[in-house]
Design a protein that fits this description.
The structure is a homodimer.
Chain A lengths: L12 H13 L2 H8 L3 H15 L4 E4 L2 E4 L1 H28 L3 E6 L1 H8 L3 H7 L4 E6 L13 E6 L5 E10 L19 E4 L5 H9 L11 E2 L2 H9 L4 E5 H9 L11 E11 L8 H11 L1
Parallel strand pairs in A: 3-4, 3-5, 7-8, 7-9
Antiparallel strand pairs in A: 1-2, 5-10, 6-9, 6-10
Helix pairs in contact in A: 1-2, 1-3, 1-4, 2-3, 5-9
The structure holds a DNA duplex (30 and 30 nucleotides).
DNA sequence: TATTAGGCTTAGAAAATCTGAGGCATAGAT
DNA sequence: ATCTATGCCTCAGATTTTCTAAGCCTAATA
């Protein structure tokens, strides 16, 4: 029976967060990814909790981990608590700096769609600073410090614009593209993550389907666009992203139809907002632009 | 505009906890005490948050700190979130080890009142393990991993027993105590935290009040009791705590009245419990004993 | 005027946390 | 049946966070 200060240490908060993420995402690797650490760290955290608890929270299998009954019963409470905490942090940030709006967007969208609209945004709302972070996938808004997300998606809510595919090239490149069949003879630029765009367009434009496009692949769509502008080849363009270049004549459509795609640009916020709120104002200005 | 992994680090959880505690308790020193760290650590945490936030959360004054308007607005959300988190941890612990009940008690109560009752408790509920932690002040049940608290208090809810003061000594010491006035001539044992007990009893027993007790002071009441049993002097006893010694004849009351005191033994739980719950069973068994 | 209480600062120490490399086991593919 | 990919584990060492200790400062109190 100890007397004075036998500090009954609580469980470490970071370990609890790891547990929560692993439980919610169904795996240590996914949790590690969300938390921005290695899976080994998550392993260690969960193991520490289980050791202090004296009972396993996950059943380990070769195909991954699964929550034990104990974990299943207790995990939701942690999710809620951390949600509340994240929300509190977001509110705190916002109260402290109400004039900064953090936008998360796909790199291509950030550079090709959002960037050209920023001057107008600044003009309309000079009091608001817009900070943009590019990332491959939409963040978990409940856990990340972003106010708005701008990505491709396929619902109706939050849709800003639909999109369509069509080939484009520099005006100087036009002579080399008399018809669709010329595609087999010129470099066909494409993006690594949208590698299906060519096939999807060809399926409509050349249903007989004997044209197989070849050409360099870029990991950044904006790079491919730049190359197309420089006359490096023909690009399968996404209307929403190359509209500015087309409008200014830097890119032209040599032939063929515009093929609508299921996904369009979507903009959404972390939560409902008052109409007077800076985040809401930015969303409205972007949605109209 | 960074591209891939510009990890937008969240605020550190431990710093947020320090902020919450400081806001709730109204000072860094108090927060440090609750968290079991030095005030310097709390200072650093809060300063870190303020730096990242770009706005002060506390107004520093020489007499302590006070929340700024920003802090006042945002602190409650953190308190709620951490409450939820603590509750989740408590539930987790309980689900994992439903048969262990953690009791927090005043050292004197733990040793002199609770300890003698443990054998009966074990007999009645052999499936439950009772773990006891002694501490000077009741813990914040919302933030500490204790299931039951056993301390002196003065309400009606949760009261187990009232208490009263009267002098006691070893039977071998009786000859030296013919009357109240002899108190001035013998060692009067007392406890450091209950230093008023002698005065309170004398105020009733000897209203004229010319007796001034002198004698060793102990930081642990149980030590004073032990010394009294060993014939070292006369102790101002608290009935609830020395009942066992009196019953077995190790201590006797030489003279004078029993003076009721306002505070009695109180037992309370962190939250409402089902009657079948181990914690509830322990509480009931203690409340009846 | 001394004392006390509460907070700040700094440098250094301690502890938590993370990484990186190597392993193991299973599932599905060749 | 063997190969490959996935997902997790372990361990040692590195890094970062967090903490302490000691001294200073200010305002209120005695």
């Amino acid at each position: 029976m100890a007397v004075s200060p036998p500090k009954p240490k609580d469980m470490p908060l970071n370990a609890l967060r790891a547990l929560e993420a692993a439980a919610r995402l169904g795996g240590f690797a996914a949790a590690a990814d969300e938390l921005g650490v290695t899976p080994a760290a998550v392993t260690a955290h969960v193991k520490g909790l289980e050791a202090e608890l004296g009972a396993p929270l996950f059943a380990r299998g070769a195909k991954g981990v699964e929550l034990t009954a104990l974990g299943k019963r207790t995990a939701p409470a942690f999710a809620q608590a951390f949600d509340a905490l994240s929300q509190a942090v977001r509110d705190l940030r916002e109260e402290a700096l109400p004039q900064v709006v953090h936008v998360a967007a796909l790199p291509a969208i950030a550079q090709l769609w959002l960037s050209p609209r920023l001057p107008a945004l600044r003009a309309e709302a000079p009091d608001i600073a817009v900070s943009i972070t590019a990332m491959e996938a939409p963040p978990n808004l409940k856990r990340s410090p972003y106010d708005l997300c701008l990505f491709y998606g396929d619902g109706a809510v939050g849709r800003i614009t639909d999109d369509a595919l069509f080939p484009v090239c520099a005006p100087s490149f036009l002579p080399r593209l008399q018809g669709v069949e010329d595609l087999a003879a010129v470099p066909c630029l494409s993006d690594a993550t949208w590698c299906d765009d060519w096939a999807n367009w060809l399926a409509v434009a050349v249903p007989d389907g004997r044209v197989v496009p070849r050409g360099p692949v870029f990991s950044l769509y904006a790079l491919a666009v730049e190359e197309a502008v420089n006359g490096a080849g023909v690009l399968m363009g996404r209307r929403a992203l190359i509209a500015a270049h087309v409008a200014r004549g830097a890119l032209v459509q040599p032939f063929g139809p515009q093929v609508p795609i299921a996904e369009g640009l979507h903009l959404w916020a972390a939560r409902p907002l008052r109409r007077s709120h800076p985040i809401w104002r930015v969303a409205r200005l972007l949605g109209q632009g």
